[in-house]
Each structure stands twice: as structure tokens, then as C-alpha cells.
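[Automated response] Your request has been received and processed.

Submitted sequence:
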Amino acid sequence: MIKYLVTICLMLLLYTNSALAMPPIMKTSELRPGMQGYAETVVQGAQKVSFNVEIIGVVNNGKGSPKQILARAYGPIIDDTNGVIHGMSGSPVYVDGKLIGAVARAVGQDVLPYKFYITPIEEMLDIWNLPDPLTVINKSNIKIVDIPSLEEYEKNQDDFDKNIDKEVEKYKSKHLATPEGKETVKGKAQKRLEEILSGIDIETEEDKNSIDDEDIVQTDKIIKDLEDKSKTTIDADKLEEHISLTSFILKSLQKEYKSQASDLSTTKMMPIYVSGFNDNALNFLAENLKYKNMTPYATGEFISSPIGNSGSDIKENATLSAGDPVGVVLAYGDFSAGGTGTVTAVDGNKILGFGHAMTYKGNVNYFMTEADVIGSAGGILNGVKVSSFGKIIGRINQDRFNGVAGILNEYPASIPVRVKVTDRNLGQEKTFVSKVAYDEDILPTLASSIVYASMDRTADRASYGTSKIKFTIMTDEVPEGKFERENMYYDPKDVGQFTVGELTQALYFLCTNMEKPSNILDVKVDVDFTSSRKTASIVSAIPDKEEAKPGDLVNFSVTLKPYRRENVTVTIPYTIPKTQKEGQMFLEVKGGGFVQLAQVLQSGLAATPQDAANLSTVDRLNDLKNLNKNNEIVISPTIDTQSEVDQDKAIKEAIKLSEEIGKMSKKEREEFNKNRESKISTDYVVDNFIQTSIKIKK
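Generated structure:
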């Protein structure tokens, strides 16, 4: 009996190995025009079907160029689909019972796609032998960091967050300064500063020409109002010498993406199929992905069931065979991004598919999923399989010219992105959850685009108005185990792009860690969103005394004019720095989103390009965390900008002070900067600044 059972087990084992082993192959050198064969694929459901293939010839451009097999497809299946369609890519092609390669693509867009190219299997097999260094980043295994259903999460939110906390190791960190950027319109003082700070980008004429006439009119009106109502005068140059931190963040990220991207005029844009993104969100995603040489397309591909609502999102001990549909997925959940194709070959737990690249990014870290083919949409041109992503069954680790490769039952590192949006106009709250594969190059873009799309889907309108955002990134890169930041924004056209700016930057810092891959465990975002304009302008800031001594406390009565609301007055205490020199002290009362470059120098916050290169990931995160917020009123020392003589003198003093600060210890420097400003939060985005002064006597 025992011998009989052993025999049966051996037979089953041999059968399993045979099913998962590579079939015999035929090389291009053995092919001849007129040879007949067939391709195997799925056009609906799970049933494999085949269509006839006739070999026309082998295209060989020599000099190491990849070979392609030109063939003709025919038969009932091809008649129904009107040729080779999207989703058939990777379908194995056999001649005389031997595997010759994978369906790659139709010959052209201007002819009926009955003639198509086959990627030779001999070219594809090399992909399995390529190195896979990204396997080392699979610390945040998706088995460990699982996503509960919405109901489970709301019920056990505290326990869920604590469990993530336990995953985080705490490291000691260093704190340095944040390098500053450039403004939208330049005044004379800033131009002088830019000559000194060679590391700050110079604005292009295109940037200058992009200023709206409406913005100029509004600025002139604010200046006139302030001249009439404020204790001190102000001129247009001073407003020109300011920069918006939010605009700087977005522009600096865009420049960084541009510098990393290939020349778009010579590099083919790779299509990425997405679902869950409405038109506005799709345009936002497209704008950001173009620097990655990718173009998103809305498609019928979607997640077959809501993420986390049907047990685990992982199917363990999964198997695939040649001809099966398969998904290559970058984001998985309420918002998805990726594509489906067909498996070409399986050898043990290794698979080959697609017959062409999807993102063409080489060694990658994407989800491999099951795929369900709902049906096919054949047309005169550009037919497509309508598919859905199923459960996660493995990891795609190679995305190369000749196809993709993956490993079954090995899972990629991933980051849960959980977004809750409250829309005040509709009085509703929605929660969205997606997992994003840990691809450092596109994680910041995908995560921020998911937040933008969540706002779009909740509000069901264009993204104008006022938003409040609070986001938490669970990571072991900071001693606290998490990075938190909140801010408030207003924009009459698209507040969404500003809302996600700091989240994008924080993730970018983590994904460009110079030392090692950052362990990001979770991203949680809360957005409060309304179409109302919740802004306010500072109209006056009056101190309670005309003279003061270093170390004295001065209370400023600051009057705000909210948009279409009654004036609001708040009191902000300010302590005169003990190091303040005798004479007239100039102070700036401003919204937290404004920083004057002269003040940046004076406060010791500017960094040279060399200093910036030495900033650690923790340094950058802490600098972002400590930035003033748009809804804060901030009082800080500044320079008198009434004349160029005063400007040059003040700039020289600021540079001297900055050099002195540079010699301070880190603790001394933090205390120095901390004690030079006072701030208070408001319920409005504070959209301007004024200048005042007080006489200092010893």
C-alpha cells in the first residue's frame, strides 16, 4: 500500500513538473516562409482558443538589433476580433508543436491588423537571466502590511495604526536647512540675491509671460488697500520679492522630473492603462507621467472586487500556463494602473509574457495579478480585450524590450495609500484605498495623483476652491516613526494640484534616499474640500508700543479682511530678539506661504548647492515639516526695501549674519531661527504681507 502511494505521488510530481516546464522551442534560423502554426490566447472568460498563423519571414536588421518574425493571422477568432488586438500580446505561437515566440503587435495603425510581429522566444529567454537587485527592497511585504475593508478599518482604526507603528524602527536623525527656490515675478532685491546664490534657478521668460492679467489687477488692488489702511507704506517691488512656497515645491519637483526624463522628442511614450481616474484626474496624471515617458489611458481594465473586501488580495500557490491572461499592475485598488497581456511561457515559478515592454523600465517591482477577460471589442483598428485585474499572484521583476518576466508567489513591496475626502458642498465623505507598488521613480506621482483623483470623484466637479490636507507617512526614516504635515490651500481654478504638492515632495525625498531604499509602510491622507473661497488679506499690524528694548514683548494687533466677510482682529505676541541692534527694526507680517529671499538669508535658512547635496532624507523631511503654513500669520524680521541702497546694505548685513549663523552649532542655530519669528493659525489662507517697524533702544 505504501509503495503504491509513493508511486502515485511520483506520478503526480512528474505530471506537475511537466505542466510547468518549458516546451521545446524553435529558433528563427529554423523558420521558413509559408510555415503554418497557431497562437493560443483567451478572448472571453477563462477558455483558451487558438487562431491560425502563417510565417511570412524574419526581420533581421543586424548589428545586434532584436529580430522580429512577420506573420499573418487568420481563422474564425481573428475574423471576430478583426485581427490581432491589444491584450493578445504575449500569446504563445507554435509551429510543428514547438514554441517560436510571442504575439507582439500588429504591423501598423493604417492597415487591418491581420499581419503582425512575433517576438522570438530565443530573444525572450534572456530576460530570465537578468539581475534583480530590487528584490532587496521587499521589506514591506504586502502579506504583512495588509489592507482591511473599509468597515474593518473604521472599526479598528487605532489598532491598525498601532500595528503599523510596530513595524517602524526608530533612527537618529540630523537636521539641516531647506534650500530655497525662486519666485514667479522678480524684484530688484531678488535679482541681486540670485547673483549671490548661484544655486537658485533663474526664471525663464516663459514663466514671466504666464502671469495672468487678473492676478496683476488683484495685486495692484491689494497694494492700494494696504497703502490706505496700513500703518506703513508698501510698494509693488516688495510683493515681487516674495515667493510662494507651494508654487516653488511644484515647480522644483517638475524641474527635477524634467532633468531625470529622457528627451521626449526621441523617446517613445509608453502607454499605461488606468481606471478610477475621471477626466480632470487623468489629465493631472498625464501631465506628471510625461516626465517618466509614460502616457495614461482610461480603459476597461479594473479591479474585479473592491480592495480588501473579499479576504486577502493575494492568491497563494497560484499557477499560470502559456496562453493565460496576466496583469502587470503598478497601482491596485480603487485606483489602478497597469495593463493586461498574455503569458508566453512558464518554467517552474518563472513566467514570460507580453512579447514587448510595458513601461520599459528594466528591473522593476510590480504586482503580477490574475486577469479576467470579460470580452473583446474588435474594430476596424485598435481592437482591445476588456479585462479586469484579479488577485495578486506574484511579482513582475523585469520589464524589457522583448517582454516582461515575473515570479509566481513572490510578492512586491507595496505602500497602502488611504484617502478620506470630506466635501462640504455635497455634505458627503468618501474613502478610497489603493496599494502602490514600490517603484521609487513613480511612487510620488501615483500616490499624489490618487489623492487628486479622490478629491475629483468625491466632489464630482472641477477642483477649484479651498482645501485642508493632513497626511501621515509611516516610515522608519524619522525617529518618530512617521512624518506628518498639514496645510491649507485656495485656488480659483485647480486647488487639487497645490493640495498634493507637499505630499509629492515628502514622498520624493523618501524615494531619492541617497543611502538606501526608504521603508515606507503606509500613506494616510485626510482632505477637507469646499468650493468656497476662504482667504483673507492682512490690512494692518499695529504694535502696542512704539519703542522697545531687545528681549521685550510686543503685542501686534493684526487686522484681517476675509473674503466677503467682516474684518477679524487677532493679537500676536512677538519677542524682540536679544541680539537686535539699536535703531529702526523692520518687521514683516505675512501669510505663512510667503518667504522673502532677503529674509531667507538673514535667518540663515539659505543653503548653497554644496550644502543642499549633503542634506540627508531626514534633513529634507524635517525642513518640510517646519515650513510655515498658508493659513498662518507670521511676524519676522526683514530688511528695508525702500531703495536699492538700502537693499544692498541690508543684503550685505544678511550675508554676514548668515555666515555667523553657519558657524553656530545645530542647536544654537535652531534656537536662533526659532526665536526670530512668531506665528498664529487662522481659518483662512492668508494671501498677502505688509511691513511695519518699531524703534529699538538699548
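Summary generated for your ticket: DSSP finds 19 helices and 31 strands in the chain. The longest helix spans residues 2-20.
If you did not submit this request, please reply to this message.
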